[in-house]
Task: structure prediction
Amino acid sequence: MFSYIWFIVILSAGSNFYCQGRELEIHLDENPPKSVTLMCMNLPYDETFAEWKKDGSFLPEQPHHRFSPDRKNLTISPLKVRDSGRYSCGSLTLKRFSKPIDLTFIPAKPSVEPSSYNQVVGQNLNLTCDQIKAPSVGVTWSRNDTRLQSKDRFTFPTNRILAITSLEKEDEGKYTCIATTKYGSTESDYFNVAIFFPCSKPSVQLQRARVNEHNNMSLTCQHLNGTSARYTWNKNGHRIIPSNRFVFLDRGHNLVILGVQRPDQGIYQCSAANAFGRETSDPVTVHVNYKSNTTWIVSVCVVLALLMCAVVAAAYFKCRKSIQAADK
Ligand SMILES: *[C@@H]1O[C@H](CO)[C@@H](O)[C@H](O)[C@H]1NC(C)=O
Ligand SMILES: *[C@@H]1O[C@H](CO)[C@@H](O)[C@H](O)[C@H]1NC(C)=O
Ligand SMILES: *[C@@H]1O[C@H](CO)[C@@H](O)[C@H](O)[C@H]1NC(C)=O
Ligand SMILES: *[C@@H]1O[C@H](CO)[C@@H](O)[C@H](O)[C@H]1NC(C)=O
Ligand SMILES: *[C@@H]1O[C@H](CO)[C@@H](O)[C@H](O)[C@H]1NC(C)=O
Result:
């Protein structure tokens, strides 16, 4: 079984406290400790000497570093700003070192915590600068690397909160908070604010309201607002399932009907939806032009009737001629 090698850090600054395998922040503006003791724990018992590394290299001997005889305790006194860094201890013979801990003299890296991950237009948003331990740490905010001032819809209700009221599209961007002490400052990672728009009511756009049989037809679900909208289509109240004749393009924003057939005539509607709602268009009627059977039958009948008339007329005139000839 492997035993972990880990640390205890003791600050002797009146009250002792320790941390284990974590970041250790020392706020030099806050009554800093006179010394720090790093203890190498859980070395296998037959390992008599601990080795120390700082920022990946073996720790050089320094007058303000003191080791216990087994080198398992390292006391740094007096503490200097240049002692900040990443420390680990371990065993050379075992070739194993502890997880490092960071000794820092500036604020720990803050993080931005939003009051809501769904930043919907018109709503309010609070961004909190988190992970700040000392109240004396100052916080400033920036968007796209430009410092934000308290103005109009932007306020700072507390030292750590940026409050944005009635979100607008222009509030999109990369926000950071910066924690500052007189010894330096630390910036959070970017927090991306993306404004979502609920879908507004769509309308079905047709190239032509009448389409000839066997042609292709394209219908578009048009709408003004709606972030990452997805679309569904209905014909005569029934959901259209994409198929090789009903082709959905751009998540269904366009519906293309290939080789229109007579039953495709009907009433079409589309819906646009995202996480913030669904809206459905008014119905639109599509007519399919086709050569109907009745038209064909009527045409044939008319032609036949005309032919018969011609025959009858011809017979009549022929008859009359022969009667007139006989009369003479
Ligand atoms: C290491 O430091 C701790 C805390 O100060 C102490 O209790 C312990 O005896 C020390 N160990 C050695 C070997 O000096
Ligand atoms: C933002 O923070 C302020 C101050 O803490 C609070 O009054 C407000 O309700 C918060 N707003 C939101 C949207 O969380
Ligand atoms: C911030 O940058 C993003 C692109 O990175 C841009 O879309 C946004 O409009 C910018 N915001 C402001 C307020 O300039
Ligand atoms: C689209 O969003 C803007 C900004 O919120 C709003 O002013 C507008 O009324 C919306 N349009 C529609 C059709 O919903
Ligand atoms: C309909 O679209 C298909 C596929 O895009 C194409 O092959 C075909 O020629 C089109 N037909 C007509 C009548 O435009």
Remarks:
- The first strand starts at residue 6 and ends at 12.
- Confidence is low (pLDDT under 50) at residues 12-21.
